[in-house]
Structure formats: structure tokens, C-alpha cells
Amino acid sequence: MKRQWESLAEWLDQRTGLQTAIRQFLYEEIPASSGWHQVLGSVAVFLFLVQAFTGVLLAFNYAPTPGDAYNSLRYILTELTGGRLIRGLHHWGASMMIVVVVLHMTQVFLWGAYKKPREATWMVGVVLLLVTLAYGLTGYLLPWDNRAYWGTVVVTQIAAQAPLLGPYLTRLLGGEGAVGVVTFARFYGMHVLLLPPATLLLIALHVYLVRKHGVAPAPGDERRPPQKFYPRQVFKDTVAIFAAFAILFTMAVVARVPLEQLADPTDTSYVPRPEWYFLFLFQTLKMFSGPLEIVGSMVLPGLAILALVMVPFLDRSRMVRVTRRTVAIAFVALAGISWTGLTVAAARSTPPPAGTAQIDFSAPTDWMGLSPEELAGVAYFRQENCASCHAIGERNSIGPDLTRITIHKDAAWMIQHFKRPSAMRPGSSMPPILLGDAQLNSLAAFLLKLNPDNASALENAPEFALQGALVYQANHCGTCHMVNGVGMKIGPPLNGLAKRETRSWVVDHFADPQKLSPGSIMPPYRLAPKDLENLTSYLFALPE
Amino acid sequence: MRSAEIQPGEQITRRSFYVGAVYGICGIITAALGLPALVYLLFPPKVKKTGEWVEIGDVTQLAPNAPVEMVFRRNRVDGWRISSEKGTAWVVKHPDNHVVAFGPQCTHLGCAYHWEEGKNEFLCPCHSSLFGLDGRVISGPAPRPLDRYETRIEGTKLLVGPLVRSGGRPA
To answer: Distance, in angstroms, between A265 CA and closest chain B CA?
Structure first.
């Protein structure tokens, strides 16, 4: 068997030279000082391959046009098994790739590995960094949710400020006037058609240059015999790759990547924020205003990129040990501190997501279809900690699983049972629920709606909506208004309110209805600020 | 040179450890990416079951053994797109009040057939397949009986569900 395999490999090698090429690649000599500090380049290449792989998988179920893009991504997240994991890998892989590329550059910078004759290798590396950032920038728009849309609006406006080139850049990004279908097509084209082959070429060039000049030696290496790349260094690279992959996989499983509501260009209240790795630029931009804004948006980033490219020419000193490169260490420390400071400042000034931005659209949103009474029932279910005994979807909890229980008695039975559990079900260890009749009605209404298919979707109803529904019920809004087909038609139906009115109009309207809609018979409502906010957010989250 | 201090045998075990670890890690990563990818591509989507049943008409309006072509609209879930589309069924009420709704396509090559009033047969104009009132093939190239919709009667309303291939499997 082994001999057959060997003769096949030999046959192939004679015709293609494949084996010889692999052997040459693996048995390349590297300096004796090579080791763990040089694994990051391989990790970056690995992450690029993961991005390519997960990107292709996403593309198999993704429709690259606005509107459909959002729906198809929701389809991936809520309908397809493993879709959430694949997207998680792609999303966190992007962040991780930036981290690893920056660490790789930092290592090369600290060791002074960019010095003659390796200037070109370094400069190709800078271009690769920019390409990595370009992926982040263009990929950000592709979910076409509010976050994506408004983040890209900011980017195109920054591009428009460029001296002389501004109008042309805007046109190139398809952002004539606003971010729209053209911008989307351009970003998608860049992200999946232009950048990947460009990256492959640049990586090939980068690796070729590394091989041409050899891995940068440390002082003293000339006196020690070189080692081979395989298997020791390959082993170290692989262990580092595995560590990176383990972190990435854990992130993809544990950390939820949010999806906000479908991009709404008319949403004036949305506060856009860029992805975390662009926050420092965003904060720099905020330090300049008026005519100086261009300094923050163009001049400083431009100078920084230029300085990076020029590093090998600015530092022409002789190669010394990394521990003696104090200036380089000081530079890295300074850059690290400023980056952290700017990022923290930007993160601190980010308001917590408000209103509909809190809804996680990456999960099913069946709770939106509930009536206010049923949704208030979800609130009581949570408030009374019912799930501590009746864990949803778990058979082994203390009380019966309420999704599967076949009794599903009528509401009257349930309410009696809530008040005196053992009276309706002898031997029950359930404590009585100390709520009023209206509240127990709500709870029963919710439990009647509950089934195994919608349980988890109802469970992830956001807190503001539950609180909003409680306020709605407490003020008997349903005696005049209709929500999701439940209620009266004396006042206007409240579905689609977000499309008809602004938030501030609705808030003012509660205080003095007649002022804003003359002839209205709605009484004024003096709600506590928190209640008012939750109710308004809830009404704005209603489906159309 | 560090490796010179190591005995040759020791060097080989260390080398084989390196090689083994490299292959092992590559295998783990390939599996961790490949298996979810297969699941993602091969598992069917979790289709929502609601809205499959649609009302198409009133059973009291049907005369026994007189097939009627009924048109209805229903939502079709196509991946991430939900579209409203027209559906057609040939509905037959048997004398025992049992109602059957046939799919509108001939089982031969999918042509639309129709009811021949005088002959009491369904005729496909493409290759002259003939089907009886019960959907069975009387003559012609059709390989199997007409497909049927699942049906349900609520009060006097006739509801149709998914189309079931006459072999037994869903179409």
C-alpha cells in the first residue's frame, strides 16, 4: 500500500513537480532564532481561509440585493441548522483577522524585520492590512440592517470630504446623495469579487518575498546553524492556529452577533457606530469640527498610512536584538495606549441601544405577533419566575413543561389553578400566584398561545416590549385601540404607528392629545418617564 | 546546536510528535468546519407549519360526481421569500359526501388536464391520458393516478393542505 502510494506520488512529481515544490517549501532553512514569535503570519493566512470558506457558505443562502439581503440573512439565522454558527465564524473571524494582522505587524516592527532587503515585504504587508480593513468596511453593509445602513452612511460622507477626489469617491462608492442599491452592489462586488483575488495575489507576493529573502534573522544567528521549517516551526504555527481557531469557534458559539431591524433610511433617531476596530478613527474624527474635520477624517489617517509604508526608510539603523529596540518598543506602547484611549472614549460615549435597536432580529420574533394581553402574560411569567420550575422545553424540570402539556385547560381552569394550585390539581407543590384577576387573565392568555414551535421565540421578547405591554394593559389602551387585530376600533389601530408618526410626536401626544390631533377624544396620560419610554418603544416595535 | 545534544532515537520521537500533532490539529479543524458546513447545506430549513391550509370553497355548492375546477391563493415559502401564488384543484364530491381535491397537472408530463363532461373522464390534451373520477389512469401514457391535495372540512368550508404525490410521497 505504502509502496503504491509512493510510486503514485513519484509519477505525479515527474509530471508536475508538485512533490518537489512542497518539499522545497517545507524544508526551507530558517534562522536558529525562529520560534513562537513568528507564528502570526500563518495564523493570518489560516483566518483568511476560514473567512473565504464561511463566506462561500453564506453566499450559498444569501441574496445580494437590499431587502432580500436582510431576509435571506434572517433565513440563514433562524431557519437553517448551523447558519448562526457559520455567520458567527464569519463575523468574529473578521474581527480576529484584524487583531492577528495587527499583532503580526507589531511583531515584525518590534523585531525590526522590515529592514533591508525586506522593505518590499513590509510594504506589501501594509497593503494587506488595508485590504483587511476594506473587507470590514464593505462587509459591514451586507446585512442591510439599521446598523449596517447608518454605519455606511457615515463612511460615504467621510469619503465625500476628501479634497478634490470627494465627488469622484462618492460616485465610485455609488453613494450619490444617499446609500442605496448602487452602493450596496458596489460594496458587495468589492467584498466578494474584487478583494478576495486581490488578497490571494498579495499573500502570494508577500510569502514569495519572505521566501526570497528568508525569514529575518536575529543578531547572532549567523554563528548558529539554521533549522528546517518543517516540522518544528510548522508544529508551532499549527498550535497557534489551533489556539486561534478555538477562540474563534467559542466566540461564534457563545457570543451572539446581533441583527437589527431592516435598514430604515427614514429613521432619524438612529445613532450609528462603526465596528469596534474603527472606533478609534471615529473618535479621532470627533476631535475636529468645522473646516478642520478633514484633519481627522483624511489627513491624520492618511499620514498614519504613509508613515507605516515608510517605516523601513525612516529606520535604517542596523539590526539589533529586540530587547534593545527601545524606540520601537516606545512607539508600540504609545500607539497601543492611544488606540486604547480613543476606543474606550468612543465606547463610553456610545449610548446603550434604545427602543427597537434592542430587538434581536437574528432570532425568531414571534412575540411581535402576540396581543398586548398575551405579551403582558409573558411579563408576568418572567416576573413570577415561573420558568424556575416550568423550564420551557425541558421535560426534567420540577413542574410540567408548559409547551407540551396536553391538558391546556381553558382560561377559567387555569386562573383557579393559579390562585389555589392544589385545589385544581391535588398534591401540586406549586405556590399560589399572588396577582389580580386581570393579570392572571394575561398569564392564562399567554399560556394558551404557547406551543413547542414558538416557545423560544416568545421567550426572547425584549424587556422593554414586556414593560410596554404591561403599561398598555394597565391603562386599558385596548378599549379604544387595536394591536395585532385585538382591541377596539374607536381610536386608530396602532400597528404601523412607527411609519406614520415620529417618536417625539407620540410622546407629546400622550401628554396632550387634543393639541396634536384636534378633535381627538383620547384623554391625556401622565405616565412615569420610564413607562412612557417603554410604551412608546413597544408601539414602535409593532409589526405593520 | 540543541539537536546535536539529543540522541538520534529521541530526535525521531520528537519529530514524529510534531508531525502527528500537525496532522491531528489539521484533522480537528477540518472536522469542526466541515461538519457544520455539511449540516448547514444538507439539513432542510425549519419551515413554519402555519398557513399551509387554505380555504378553497363551500362543499355545499358541489354536486355529486361533478368535478369543479377551483382556484385559490396561498402563500408559498420559497427560501427567504414568501410569495402568494395561485393554486388550482379539481374537486370531486363523491355520492357518500367524501370530497377529493386533485392536483391540476397530469402525472405524465405535467400538462393541465380538464374534465370531459360527456365522457365522464379527465382528459389530458397533450398525450391523451385519461383518468377516472377516482383519479385512476384509464388509458394513455400517465404512469400513476392523479396527485391529491390533503383535504379537511370545517363546517361547510373545504380546506386544502399540501399536495401529496400519488405514490404516497409529498410532491
So the answer is: 22
